[in-house]
Design goal:
single chain, mainly alpha, 8 strands, 3-stranded antiparallel beta sheet, 278 residues
């Protein structure tokens, strides 16, 4: 296992790959960067590129993946949380393209993370799950039947909000940064809550993760009585840490008398049943 120093070309290559910076990756490869070197979180440049999906242009990510694959990056290296580049691509990809590129390069699809979760279980998008299930023969997890939507009255939401606030206070004591009605979309909510995590000292201050819901989540909850929560765990959202933080969140709501639907996977958001709270 090779860990690069902060000033080495490999660290620059990892950062460039995560940002899907095609020119910088080309420059790093030309400079002879070590493709097996890890960044501070245990990821190689290929693994960084595999998870660079949410805030980078898809075409740039694919270009970077292609450059790193063609340069001979190790396909089966186990990064943070025991995840390979293919596992990370399945976990973060918004479509099948990066996953298919790694499969075509020879990446082993029959993999699990350090917590034992199969790649099919942890794949984020249904089409990615379907692709990997077809390749590996591993069945797609069966989702529970959704409950009938139940519109919340103002009094229902006030009672639910009081309970959520109390649960969130308990989660804060567990080192989980919480936020209610933050941002509009999941990306907004995550970015704003993550900023609070950083400003409060992050993992160096004993913080372990995030839990939040957005304005979209709030509006859906008022229409349906189901509140979906965003969550994340440090470092780098490793699956084992995500599952631990997710379980802490679910246990806290359950202890408060609120049922939660969650399959135990980092790929699924816990959904709190707010029916009958008032």
């Amino acid at each position: 296992m090779t860990t690069a120093s902060a000033s080495s070309p490999a660290i620059d290559l990892c950062a460039a790959a995560l940002a899907a910076d095609v020119a910088a990756v080309q420059a790093g490869l030309a400079a002879g960067a070590d493709l097996s070197a890890e960044n501070a979180h245990g990821f190689t440049a290929l693994e960084c590129a595999a998870r660079a999906t949410h805030d980078t242009p898809a075409d740039q990510q694919l270009q970077v993946l292609r450059l790193l694959i063609d340069a001979g990056s190790p396909l089966e290296h186990l990064g943070g949380g025991g995840r390979t580049a293919l596992y990370l691509a399945a976990e973060f990809a918004l479509d099948c393209a990066p996953v298919q590129m790694l499969l075509d390069a020879g990446a082993n699809p029959a993999v699990r993370d350090g917590g034992g979760n199969h790649i099919v279980v942890n794949a984020m998008m249904p089409e990615v799950q379907a692709l990997l299930s077809a390749v590996t023969g591993y069945p797609i997890p069966v989702q529970a039947e959704p409950r009938p939507a139940q519109k919340m009255r103002a009094a229902d939401w006030r009672a639910a909000h009081a309970k959520i606030t109390a649960v969130f206070a308990g989660l804060e004591a567990e080192g989980i940064v919480t936020a209610q009605d933050i941002g509009l979309t999941q990306d907004d909510g995550f970015a704003d809550t993550a900023q609070q995590f950083i400003e409060r000292g992050g993992m160096d201050a004993g913080l372990v993760g995030l839990c939040f819901y957005t304005r979209q989540d709030l509006n859906r909850a008022k229409r349906s009585s189901d509140l979906s929560l965003g969550f994340w765990a440090g470092p780098e959202g490793a699956s084992a840490a995500m599952e631990q933080v997710g379980r802490t969140i679910v246990d806290a709501f359950t202890a408060a008398g609120l049922a939660v639907d969650w399959n135990g996977s980092a790929a699924q958001r816990p959904t709190v049943d707010l029916r009958g709270v008032a």
